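Practice problem: predict the structure.
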Amino acid sequence: MKITTLVENHPNQDQPALKAEHGESFYIELGDHIYLSDVGQSENFAENAAQMGINLARVEVLAISHHHYDHGGGLRRFFGENETAPVYMRSSVDADFIAVDESAPERYIGLDRGLIKQHKDRIVTVNTSQEVAPGLHLLTDIPYEYDKPNGDQRLKMRFGGETKPDTFEHEMVTVLEEADGLVILTGCAHNGVLNMIAAVKQAFPGKPIKAVIGGFHLKHEKDTAVRQIGEKLLEMDIPIIITGHCTGDHAAAVLGEVLGDRLQVLYTGLVINV
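Answer:
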């Protein structure tokens, strides 16, 4: 399996022409199949794909990990590049997703509803865990065995004039399956990376996990909490853990103190063979 990071927060020092942004997008070559997980917040994922000689028209399926702009903001460009691939995403409550931060103005962080309506024939709603294409599983049954990241308290849902904490029921786990094991793509892991791994273990009992890749949303967590997550990941004996995006550089460094060489940091253009 080969996974190419089309866009991520961190720039590529060896390929400065590739554009980085606060977002995430992975081009996945799984056997004879081509999949895409997320499309970042803009057209940069597609510009980078062109720079790397990747043809997005070959993508058979796109999975959007959750309904936030930094994972689905590039949808308009994707629809322009690819005329056939279905776009899988979880159903969402009829609410505005917003970020409320004391140090910044309130802002909308959801997807472009008009665009989704315009392309409703391409959208497939996922309500139950399922294999949507060969080796590509989308899990919606995420247990609550571990605490969710505290930083998520900034993220809200607004129904008319009522504002509530985001429940993140619009998030799913993407699992890539091969004969020798599984690769987990977490998106932002708003439900908690450990809970996402627990979901995979429930869905695939006894099947080894080869890698966990994506954001862990730990930027606003205390070091003690991050270290505890690292220790739990170490206990799980997952050989490859690659994180970035919303994890935060400091939290990633703390995880690295626990996980050592087992941890790698994501960057735009990173190619992962696993």
